[in-house]
Protein: DNA meiotic recombinase 1
Organism: Vombatus ursinus
Amino acid sequence: MKAMEDQVVQEEQGYQDDEESLFQDIDLLQKHGINVADIKKMKSAGICTVKGIQMTTRRALCNIKGLSEAKVDKIKEAANKLIEPGFLTAFEYSEKRKMVFHITTGSQDFDKLLGGGIESMAITEAFGEFRTGKTQLSHTLCVTAQLPGAGGYPGGKVIFIDTENTFRPDRLRDIADRFNVDHDAVLDNVLYARAYTSEHQMELLDYVAAKFHEEAGIFKLLIIDSVMALFRVDFSGRGELAERQQKLAQMLSRLQKISEEYNVAVFVTNQMTADPGATMTPVISWVGSLLEGCPSLTFQTVWLGLCQPAVRCWASQPAPAGWSSGDTQTDRPSPGVPWQMLLGQRF
């Protein structure tokens, strides 16, 4: 028994050591001739780590008030001294991938379908019709992300960005009862923000990055419910479609970089749209074409069906595909929706 406890302690210690090595504070640039004022300007723009500089283009850095092209070149040069921009062997990268963790959904079958749960350093998108459990799944993840998991995952805090005013703390209390955890502790570990416009939603991501840096390794999950709601309001008609998709791609790229920079899981919900020209069977698809519009992102998409009780998953990453379906319902997730599951690979 003691040997097992020692093994768990060693796994958690190794996990924490990996987390600490992931973050290189931007203040390290002072040793390479970058003044404190310029560092504060970058922090105000949500760039708080050396890796964050590497992920930001020179053009974006020049857009920060007070940073000239000469300063940006000097900052980039200093960052490259701290982070080797060279290649890794496949073995070295496989060791780096060991830092990736999975957050349970509360359903063993659903976790198996997703390859272990909601994955860190990636974006998981859940889309479906009204009343299919997208927001309920978001609430469930607020609780399950705080629970210790496999591989030494210690649990952590959650940030919830609400765009539709659907967040309900009382629902977290109900879900906390299922997992036998303290209500107040669960609520204290969820940081909530209400977004009112697509621009406000983007601005909140700068705060998210700053918070992840301030409490490095503490936050494990970022939830946006829903990611497209404000974009549909702010950009209407085909004339603004190109601009909307460009802004959306920028936001998704920002989310992907945040997930990789701070080793957190990102979970977003999305809405559905119907084709009014369809005659026999209604043609439905998710809004914004998140997966198709950003093929370079590490994406996993989950469709929650209403008319057909099914969950379908697509991934724009080379993950193994599998499926399970049938009439038997061996597990009932906490949202209360009986899910029969089907998994397919999407490239």
